């Protein structure tokens, strides 16, 4: 009986470790926590010094918005419960070199089931202590008129 329990526990631990083995899984888990406004889980996927850079505007009138990790995390609980949002990832393009990775993800962003903007995310991740964590995110935003 004890062997069955230990074997089951070993399989569960292997599965949990495998879920964090690649950058795509980290990004998927990041968005799952983002949609749930789960700042505790989000924190685990981001390095302390992580920054967000957003490029928005049109043509030569592009603007850059810089958001620090703490500002991003503190903003999520302020989103009203009646606002439903989701970022739909269209595809993934990964480039992994040892313990560093770059992942680009074209996306569409929806608020209350209406597409608000689309663009592309460029993630930079590093692998520390066996886990992939996000160091930097640059995204573009093309608004829908």
Helix content: 25-40%
End-to-end Cα distance, whole Å, is: 63 Å
**Main pleated sheet:** 7 strands, mixed
Enumerate the spans where pLDDT stays under 50 for 5 or more consecutive residues. Answer: 14-19
Number of strands: 7
The proportion of residues in beta strands is over 45%
Key features of this structure:
7 strands, 7-stranded mixed beta sheet, globular, 4 helices, 46% strand, alpha+beta, 145 residues, 31% helix
Could you walk me through the main structural features you see in this protein, from its secondary elements to its overall organization?
- This protein is α+β, with helices and mostly antiparallel strands.
- It has four helices and seven strands.
- Strands 1, 2, 3, 4, 5, 6 and 7 form a seven-stranded mixed sheet that branches.
- β5 and β6 form a beta hairpin.
- α2 (23-35) runs antiparallel to α3 (39-45).
- The longest helix is centred in the N-terminal third of the chain and has 18 residues, at 2-19.
- The radius of gyration is 17 Å and the shape is globular.
- The N and C termini lie far apart (63 Å).
């Amino acid at each position: 009986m004890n062997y069955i329990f230990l074997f089951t526990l070993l399989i569960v631990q292997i599965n949990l470790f495998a879920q964090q083995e690649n950058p795509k899984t980290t990004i998927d888990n990041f968005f799952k926590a983002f949609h749930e406004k789960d700042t505790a889980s989000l924190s685990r996927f981001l390095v302390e010094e992580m920054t967000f850079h957003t490029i928005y505007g049109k043509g030569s009138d592009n603007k850059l918005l810089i958001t620090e990790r703490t500002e991003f995390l503190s903003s999520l609980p302020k989103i009203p419960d009646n606002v439903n949002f989701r970022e739909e990832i269209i595809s993934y393009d990964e480039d992994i070199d040892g313990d560093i990775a770059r992942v680009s993800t074209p996306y569409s962003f929806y608020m209350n089931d209406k597409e608000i903007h689309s663009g592309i995310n460029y993630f930079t991740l590093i692998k520390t202590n066996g886990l992939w964590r996000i160091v930097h995110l640059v995204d573009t935003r093309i608004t829908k008129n």
